[in-house]
Design goal:
One of its GO terms (molecular function) is acyltransferase activity, transferring groups other than amino-acyl groups. Pfam families: Acyl_transf_3. InterPro entries: Acyl_transf_3_dom (IPR002656), Acyltransferase_3 (IPR050879). By secondary structure, the protein is mostly helical. The chain has 2 domains: 410 residues, no CATH class; 49 residues, no CATH class. The chain is 65% helix and 0% strand.
Length: 472
């Protein structure tokens, strides 16, 4: 199998790679150290090291997910906006149609393959230890094998189909965001389709209006984030390579710092510290009344948008994110996202709960309801060894996925596109004539004869055709 085509190093891949790494750390934190989601150790206590602003972003999974949506809005719209602003509207619309088909397939097939892998592991008993972990989150995302093979097959089919309507994955619940990525992508495509022929200033005004509407309507997961990404893409098209030399070096650095501080809004117990409680009170006046439990989503959007804009204008920040290590993380970001929860429920749980599972605890049951007791996690020393080993295994598996599974999905999507798409038509710019490019010579001759006939009729009518019916 030929190796996959390697993308050039770029700051967007580096940013995406850091975000995917933080998503994993956020889920590990949710599983074993939920207290880190609070701004301090207790209501009257002092914050721990990773509970401090900025440092807490090392386990800030919500900020990382927001970055993914921002990058989705940026990447999906950059080329169509570039072509539209250059006047290549036909190219913009053609590429938009291709991207709508191709990118959707590149989300659909890998996600379903990863879900099938999780289903297989589940039916083989790979999640049995996770279902008895003392971590409520791990137990919640783990499932026992089906009672019968037919029931297991039925659950798999439901997971591969109904999942795409509501995002409730049976065998890997953390895949819920992928459905939002898909719907967000289609909203981007629809916006680009509606604004391809619109002047730049009006396109920007429309996107800003959509952002405001999403903010006011409580669309805090998808809308405000993808439209922020589209606005940054518009900045990229407008400024190009001049962007990282326009502002004094201190300005982008300040923007990055402010973005990190705003994104540090805690996920739980906001009233435990004065700084987070002040942020909560401010946002209460700026958001709809039905979103009081999701104020962090709004703060994270403002923070990550400011952060990404600061990186956009900063040459040094771009240089750091273009480092090969960050770009390797970026190229592996999607398989890391797809597979990390399966490895948490298997490899990491086996290392953390293995000692308890091999003891008498495995056969003990609760006196009140007769259910098996939860397994006790190992000590700190086990985590010191287990966490690095888990990450090495995760990125090794993701690298294998990028070399074999991802190219297979790409070939399937490309084959479907070749079979389903008709031949491209090169539209003429005249009002009465057009040259159609097809494979067959007869069709090409008919197109030429049609154009000549229209020209002849135009000349017979006093030269009208020479002005308005000129073929491309």
């Amino acid at each position: 199998m030929a190796p996959p085509k390697r993308r050039d190093d770029n700051w967007i891949d580096g940013l995406r790679g850091i975000a995917s790494f933080i998503v994993v750390t956020g889920h590990i934190c949710t599983a074993f150290a939920t207290y880190l989601h609070s701004p301090s150790s207790s209501k009257d206590g002092w914050p721990l090291f990773f509970q401090l602003p900025i440092l807490r972003l090392c386990v800030g999974g919500r900020a990382a997910v927001c970055i993914f949506f921002l990058v989705t809005g940026f990447v999906n719209s950059i080329n169509p906006i570039t072509n539209a602003q250059s006047g290549n509207t036909e190219v913009a619309l053609t590429n938009l149609a291709k991207a709508t088909f191709t990118r959707s397939g590149r989300l659909f097939f890998p996600t379903n393959i990863a879900a099938t892998v999780a289903w297989t592991v589940c039916q083989l008993g790979g999640f049995n230890m996770a279902t008895r972990a003392d971590s409520p989150w791990i137990r919640m995302v783990s499932k026992t094998p089906g009672p019968t093979f037919w029931e297991a097959i039925k659950n798999l089919v439901q997971n591969l189909t109904l999942f795409w309507s509501n995002g409730s994955g049976t065998y890997d619940p953390v895949h819920w965001t992928i459905v939002f990525f898909l719907t967000g992508s289609f909203r981007i495509y629809l916006t680009l389709l509606a604004t391809t022929l619109v002047k730049t200033k009006w396109r920007v005004a429309i996107v800003i209006a959509l952002y405001i509407f999403s903010w006011c309507s409580g669309d805090y997961i998808v809308g405000i984030n993808i439209y922020s990404g589209m606005l940054i893409a518009q900045l990229q098209v407008y400024y190009g390579s001049r962007a990282n030399s326009m502002l004094p070096k201190a300005v982008p650095a300040i923007m990055i710092l402010i973005g990190l501080l705003i994104s540090s809004y805690p996920q739980d117990n906001h009233d435990w510290m004065a700084w987070s409680d002040s942020m909560r009170r401010i946002m209460l006046h700026l958001t709809p009344g039905n979103t009081t439990n999701f104020l962090g989503r709004y703060w994270v959007n403002l923070g990550c948008t400011t952060l990404m804009a600061g990186i956009f204008f900063s040459r040094n920040a771009r240089r750091v994110l273009t480092h090969p290590v960050f770009n390797f993380f970026g190229r592996c970001s999607f398989p890391v996202y797809l597979l990390h929860n399966t490895l948490i429920r298997t490899l990491l749980c086996w290392m953390v709960y293995g000692a308890s599972a091999w003891s008498e605890d495995w056969s003990k049951v609760k006196e009140d309801d007769g259910n098996p007791i939860e397994l006790l996690r190992a000590g700190t020393g086990t985590f010191v060894i287990a966490i690095p080993l888990f990450y090495v295994t995760l990125y090794a598996v993701a690298h294998f996925w990028m070399g074999w599974v991802d190219p297979l999905c790409a070939r399937i999507v490309n084959w479907m596109r070749e079979k389903m798409f008709r031949e491209e038509v090169e539209l003429g710019r005249g009002t009465r004539g057009a040259v159609v490019n097809t494979i067959g010579s007869k069709e090409r001759e008919k197109g030429i004869e049609m154009s000549i006939s229209l020209l002849s009729k135009g000349n017979d009518n006093g030269g009208e055709g020479s002005k308005n019916s000129r073929p491309a």
